[in-house]
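Protein modeling request. Please complete all fields; requests missing the sequence field cannot be processed.
Requester role: graduate student
Desired output: 3D structure, token encoding
Chains: 1
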Amino acid sequence: MSLQTDLPAVQAGTERPWYAEVTRYQWLVLVIASLGWIFDTFEGQIFVASENVVLRDLYTEGPEQSLTAAEQAGERAFQTHVILAAFLCGGSLGGVVFGMLSDRIGRSKTMIYTILMYSLFTFVSAAVVNWQQLAATRFLVAMGVGGEWAVASSLVAEVFPPRARARSLGIFHGSSVLGGLLGVGAGMLIPQFGWRVIYIAGALPALLTIWVRYSIREPEDWREARAKSAQDPTQQMGRVRDLFAPALIRNTLVGLGLATVGLATYWGVFMYGQKLVRAVAEQSAVAAIHPGATGAEKGSRSKEAEDELKKEAEDAGQYAEMRGYLLATLGAGAGLLSFGPICERIGRRGAFLIFHLGGLVSSLVLFLGLAHAGVVAIGSFLPVFGFFIVGMHAGYAVYFPELFPTRMRGTGAGFCFNCGRLLAAPILILKGVMQNHHISLEHAASSLSVLFVLGCVLLIWAKETKDQPLPE
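Delivered output (472 residues):
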């Protein structure tokens, strides 16, 4: 009798929209976690939006060097990749440290620490006087950035009901698009206000911590796991070595591998889609402003005229790059929001496979097929490019918390996602060395896109977690 009474209710429940059972408090958690991730992404993108202006200014302010224009470009490319590698290394350390801390002292308290850290050191970055100091501050910014993702993804996974978990985590990670758009806006404002003012404004997200402090309570799952840990020494909270225990090592290595592929291709492939637009736009600007600039007349111009031409071309390239980033980011947002519904239909492994294959094809089309097709053609394809390469990142927020028990969730998710940054860092330095040795941007980026094949192979060992409860 009881079974007959309950069955229709379950069936009826499954026909309701996924959001019908989400409470007001759960929506609040998603909003706050997403805001933290939005500002997190903005702090990460602010250097990408400003790198050309920043490194040009720091070069001017530093000791004079007798380098040719080509040598300066190669040196800046190397500096850029070292700074990005420092950011990835800082993110990996912060993700592990703050992930462990969130398992031990709680999600909300740790989230406050991570937001304060990335806000403070973005502010400090405004005072640097050379690129080495900038690399150091970006490392510290990244510690907060990496930690915030691990904490927030675990928090959302534990608070939302099972039917809403994948979609809510997809929305959480998809909110990073708004952070990217803030980065675009910051990049557009740099010519008017200067990059140091934009970095000073990076302290504003610290105000979010007040809302976190008074609005978020620790999830019931975490409180139960802490109580169990106090009674059972084998169930310790947030212990990294437990990730490599027989029951978890497969999940840990698969998650780490997927994150490495995604982060290496994000920083080494996706971020160079708009760089391609910039390079083409600068060439077009030189030809349009000074028609003889690329021909025989080039050697007859004065140094002042040459500097003016260079500055005009760089400004045109800055705006073109930001427009390209906007187009790629809009496509990325569509991909991030699509991953949740797709993985609910065909499973986590199937969704990752589609996005890895799409990332490989779109990268080769952009960098080998459209590299010389002009700004309009490249810009038109960037939304497709962004959809696949960035869209899979929502899968990390969905999938990684499902691989680990509550006592290890922050540690496991943080380790996989952020140690992926650490393994991606040498790849970026290699790319910087390639460009410093005059290998073209499009050939360097297309070479790294082969990593998507590795992502497809890793799925052979990936555990399918669709329709499974979170591990206790």
